């Protein structure tokens, strides 16, 4: 098992998740350490830096559907309308993707964002191809499609509009009640068995949620969103993700009870994952917010992850292994049975798909 060394406490930044702008270490850039010269005293000389602002850069990829062959995922294709996520969840396993832009998985990931305004146009072209084969498209698997910038950019809405138009199956995962803006489209798709939604709830404690996910909606708003979606006929499950040992694991039963009260039809969970640069960021967050139990948390995490901070193996990466993982799995299953949240999720239809128009003409059907 890796040694659990205490992380250096770093002061949190109001409204942000990461306490530092840790530099990527896999692309040749190294994190700058304080060296005692005058640059490290600039705060004392110049005063506090200005508030960290969110910036959004338009990105223009050539394709929009990302495909995977992971055997432990229930979908083989997804769309990410944005890169980076303003929710600022300290535990987000997608943070390392910013390193490929030579940006920090820390504060850059949650403040220097990328939007893909051509997403719907690119998707239309891909769906119109003669060899396209229909299967559910997932949104929200890497970064949240309903993060705050969706309000101005509307990229996710444009994608959902096209999927509704073409009667294409869709899976959505989000921790935001902002998707209720699209409830008209989702309700119509649900009537044809074309959509399923998972709403993530990590904690019901406002203090824990505020520090873990500083710009994500309050947990009660997410539960209210589940109720609204269910009332509109949209099959919706609660996703307890991630479960963090000694921080949120005591809430498993309470979250499931609250989700059942909101009408959720099913529950799922994912244990904390700490790939690449996420681990040191999470350690620094622990040192700042939970110094009394930081060592205990990391010891439990490593027990779940086979002695390491992270286990990337298929099937074990989501649910872990060992005594603590088994205990959490047992508690989850018991609560799921108690609240009737252990059923399957309705299969989405693929036989209603209508290829979209492309270049002014209808695409050839199958």
Outline of the structure:
Helices cover 32% and strands 13% of the residues. It has 13 helices and twelve strands. The strands form three sheets. The chain has a seven-stranded mixed β-sheet.
CATH topology: pyruvate-formate lyase- activating enzyme
The major β-sheet equals:
7 strands, mixed
What structural category arises from helix and sheet content? alpha/beta
List unreliable stretches of 5+ residues.
32-39
Give the class-level CATH name: Alpha Beta
Strand order of the largest sheet: 2-3-6-7-8-9-10
Let me know the number of strands: 12
Supply Rg: 21 Å
> What's the number of domains?
1
**Mean pLDDT, all residues:** 90
The percent of residues in helical segments reads: 25-40%
Return the string of H and E elements: HEEEEHEHEHHEHEHHEHEHHHHEE
CATH arch. level architecture: Alpha-Beta Horseshoe
The total of helices stands at 13
Shape: globular
Report, as a whole number of angstroms, the end-to-end distance: 54 Å
Proportion of β residues?
A: 5-15%
